[in-house]
Amino acid sequence: MNLKNNEKNIKKFNNKIKLSNILNQSNIFLLHNINNKKQLLNKLSSIVENLNNISNKEIFSLLSKKENIENTGIGSGIALPNIKLENIKQSIGIFLKLNKPINYNSIDNEPVDIIFFLISPTNDVPIHLNELAHISRFLTKKKTLQNIRAALDKETIYAIITNEL
What we know:
By secondary structure, this protein is an alpha/beta fold.
């Protein structure tokens, strides 16, 4: 009985997660000239620095440490890098679509071209994990992935992501 109640609670919580609460259209980037993982992490760091006045070096250091502990390439050309920061009040998403896939050492050894970077407050670990799970399930749907890869502009990508069919 407890297990069923737990599953219901998790499902109810996941239904409350809306990617439109995490991701703004201005945080979607179509990138060219990214040739490797280090370059990608540097680009993510500078994007975050511009959004939140947090040091590029600090973000890069956190991202690099996280990637050394666990690779965030989840397969099917998707990576979900994520960090926690003390000075933010709610989760922030940054979505990147690369014009050409890069080697990311993913679990399936496939190159990555879709990146959803999640930054969460340090005190919201359960929410952070649920958001990551929700994003992962959403992005690994074949139709969603096909639509995102076919999209040519960030407005279309935002519509696909926030529609959450």
